[in-house]
Write a structure and sequence with these properties.
The protein is α+β, with helices and mostly antiparallel strands. The protein has one helix and twelve strands. β10 and β11 form a beta hairpin.
Protein backbone atom coordinates (compact mmCIF):
# COMPACT_ATOMS: atom_id res chain seq x y z
CA UNK A 1 0.00 0.00 0.00
CA UNK A 2 2.80 2.42 0.94
CA UNK A 3 4.64 1.61 -2.28
CA UNK A 4 1.50 2.14 -4.39
CA UNK A 5 0.84 5.52 -2.77
CA UNK A 6 4.48 6.55 -3.11
CA UNK A 7 4.59 5.40 -6.77
CA UNK A 8 1.36 7.24 -7.64
CA UNK A 9 2.72 10.44 -6.06
CA UNK A 10 5.98 10.01 -7.97
CA UNK A 11 4.07 9.54 -11.25
CA UNK A 12 1.96 12.63 -10.45
CA UNK A 13 5.11 14.70 -9.73
CA UNK A 14 6.80 13.49 -12.93
CA UNK A 15 3.68 14.30 -14.99
CA UNK A 16 3.53 17.79 -13.47
CA UNK A 17 7.23 18.32 -14.15
CA UNK A 18 6.83 17.16 -17.75
CA UNK A 19 3.83 19.47 -18.25
CA UNK A 20 5.72 22.43 -16.75
CA UNK A 21 8.69 21.62 -18.97
CA UNK A 22 6.45 21.67 -22.05
CA UNK A 23 5.00 25.01 -20.93
CA UNK A 24 8.52 26.43 -20.45
CA UNK A 25 9.44 25.32 -23.99
CA UNK A 26 6.27 26.97 -25.33
CA UNK A 27 7.02 30.23 -23.50
CA UNK A 28 10.65 30.19 -24.65
CA UNK A 29 9.58 29.63 -28.26
CA UNK A 30 6.97 32.40 -28.07
CA UNK A 31 9.49 34.77 -26.51
CA UNK A 32 11.86 34.16 -29.44
CA UNK A 33 9.27 35.31 -32.00
CA UNK A 34 9.18 38.91 -33.18
CA UNK A 35 7.46 41.04 -35.77
CA UNK A 36 9.56 43.27 -37.99
CA UNK A 37 7.31 46.29 -38.49
CA UNK A 38 7.47 48.97 -41.17
CA UNK A 39 5.68 51.93 -39.61
CA UNK A 40 4.70 55.16 -41.36
CA UNK A 41 6.31 57.51 -38.89
CA UNK A 42 4.06 60.56 -39.42
CA UNK A 43 0.88 58.57 -38.71
CA UNK A 44 2.31 55.83 -36.46
CA UNK A 45 0.59 53.25 -38.68
CA UNK A 46 2.05 49.78 -39.28
CA UNK A 47 2.19 49.39 -43.07
CA UNK A 48 3.65 45.87 -43.12
CA UNK A 49 4.65 43.33 -40.50
CA UNK A 50 6.79 40.22 -40.95
CA UNK A 51 7.09 37.47 -38.33
CA UNK A 52 10.72 36.63 -37.57
CA UNK A 53 12.45 34.47 -35.02
CA UNK A 54 15.51 35.38 -33.02
CA UNK A 55 18.59 35.06 -35.24
CA UNK A 56 16.70 35.72 -38.47
CA UNK A 57 18.35 38.08 -40.95
CA UNK A 58 17.04 40.56 -43.48
CA UNK A 59 18.63 43.11 -45.80
CA UNK A 60 17.79 46.55 -47.09
CA UNK A 61 19.29 47.31 -50.50
CA UNK A 62 19.26 50.54 -52.47
CA UNK A 63 21.19 52.67 -54.94
CA UNK A 64 23.24 55.47 -53.37
CA UNK A 65 21.69 58.83 -54.29
CA UNK A 66 24.82 60.68 -55.35
CA UNK A 67 27.25 57.92 -56.35
CA UNK A 68 24.58 55.76 -58.01
CA UNK A 69 26.25 52.62 -56.66
CA UNK A 70 24.60 49.70 -54.85
CA UNK A 71 24.45 49.53 -51.04
CA UNK A 72 23.30 46.51 -49.03
CA UNK A 73 22.73 46.62 -45.27
CA UNK A 74 22.40 43.24 -43.52
CA UNK A 75 20.52 43.05 -40.20
CA UNK A 76 19.71 40.38 -37.64
CA UNK A 77 17.05 40.04 -34.92
CA UNK A 78 18.84 39.49 -31.60
CA UNK A 79 17.57 37.14 -28.86
CA UNK A 80 16.54 40.30 -26.96
CA UNK A 81 14.42 41.44 -29.92
CA UNK A 82 16.67 44.22 -31.16
CA UNK A 83 17.70 44.92 -34.74
CA UNK A 84 21.47 44.52 -35.11
CA UNK A 85 23.32 45.97 -38.11
CA UNK A 86 25.70 43.16 -39.03
CA UNK A 87 27.20 44.43 -42.27
CA UNK A 88 27.07 47.35 -44.67
CA UNK A 89 28.36 46.57 -48.15
CA UNK A 90 28.88 49.19 -50.82
CA UNK A 91 30.76 49.58 -54.08
CA UNK A 92 32.23 52.98 -53.22
CA UNK A 93 32.66 55.22 -50.18
CA UNK A 94 29.98 57.81 -50.76
CA UNK A 95 28.46 60.50 -48.63
CA UNK A 96 26.50 59.02 -45.74
CA UNK A 97 28.18 55.61 -45.83
CA UNK A 98 30.03 54.29 -42.82
CA UNK A 99 33.76 54.72 -42.68
CA UNK A 100 35.39 54.44 -39.31
CA UNK A 101 39.02 53.40 -38.96
CA UNK A 102 38.18 51.31 -35.87
CA UNK A 103 35.66 49.16 -37.75
CA UNK A 104 36.58 45.94 -39.49
CA UNK A 105 36.64 46.81 -43.20
CA UNK A 106 36.98 44.26 -45.97
CA UNK A 107 37.78 45.68 -49.40
CA UNK A 108 38.21 42.37 -51.22
CA UNK A 109 36.00 41.15 -54.04
CA UNK A 110 35.23 44.62 -55.42
CA UNK A 111 33.07 45.76 -52.50
CA UNK A 112 33.80 47.59 -49.28
CA UNK A 113 32.23 45.90 -46.27
CA UNK A 114 32.03 47.17 -42.72
CA UNK A 115 30.91 45.04 -39.78
CA UNK A 116 29.71 47.54 -37.19
CA UNK A 117 27.67 45.15 -34.98
CA UNK A 118 25.51 48.12 -34.00
CA UNK A 119 22.04 48.00 -32.45
CA UNK A 120 19.75 49.95 -34.77
CA UNK A 121 16.36 49.40 -33.19
CA UNK A 122 14.39 51.23 -34.20
CA UNK A 123 15.87 52.92 -37.23
CA UNK A 124 14.43 55.39 -39.69
CA UNK A 125 14.52 55.15 -43.44
CA UNK A 126 13.10 57.69 -45.87
CA UNK A 127 11.90 55.85 -48.94
CA UNK A 128 13.82 57.24 -51.89
CA UNK A 129 12.01 58.22 -55.04
CA UNK A 130 14.82 56.86 -57.24
CA UNK A 131 16.97 54.80 -54.83
CA UNK A 132 14.96 51.63 -55.39
CA UNK A 133 14.91 50.63 -51.70
CA UNK A 134 14.08 46.95 -51.33
CA UNK A 135 13.61 44.79 -48.27
CA UNK A 136 14.82 41.19 -48.62
CA UNK A 137 13.29 39.01 -45.95
CA UNK A 138 13.23 35.22 -46.11
CA UNK A 139 12.41 34.42 -49.75
CA UNK A 140 10.65 37.72 -50.42
CA UNK A 141 11.83 40.92 -52.04
CA UNK A 142 9.60 43.89 -51.31
CA UNK A 143 10.01 47.20 -53.12
CA UNK A 144 9.42 49.87 -50.46
CA UNK A 145 7.80 52.11 -53.09
CA UNK A 146 5.08 49.45 -53.27
CA UNK A 147 4.38 50.01 -49.56
CA UNK A 148 4.43 53.81 -49.42
CA UNK A 149 5.21 56.74 -51.74
CA UNK A 150 8.70 58.15 -52.18
CA UNK A 151 9.60 60.59 -49.42
CA UNK A 152 7.71 58.64 -46.74
CA UNK A 153 9.70 58.21 -43.53
CA UNK A 154 9.52 54.67 -42.19
CA UNK A 155 10.24 53.59 -38.67
CA UNK A 156 11.63 50.05 -38.83
CA UNK A 157 11.38 48.20 -35.53
CA UNK A 158 11.15 44.75 -33.99
CA UNK A 159 8.32 43.94 -31.60
CA UNK A 160 7.71 40.85 -29.53
CA UNK A 161 4.85 38.84 -31.04
CA UNK A 162 1.63 39.90 -29.37
CA UNK A 163 3.06 43.22 -28.14
CA UNK A 164 0.86 46.23 -28.85
CA UNK A 165 1.87 48.22 -31.91
CA UNK A 166 0.67 51.49 -30.42
CA UNK A 167 2.98 53.64 -28.32
Amino acid sequence: MKCTLWCSRLVWILCCAAWLGMQADYVTAAEGMYALELVQRSKNVVLRSFPLSSGAEFTVAYTHSSDHTPVVDRFQITPQGNILLLEEAFAWYGAGLAFHPHEDIDTSQGWSRTYPQRIMDPFYLRIGRVAGHTLHIRNQTIALLDIAPGGTCLWIRARAQGESSHD
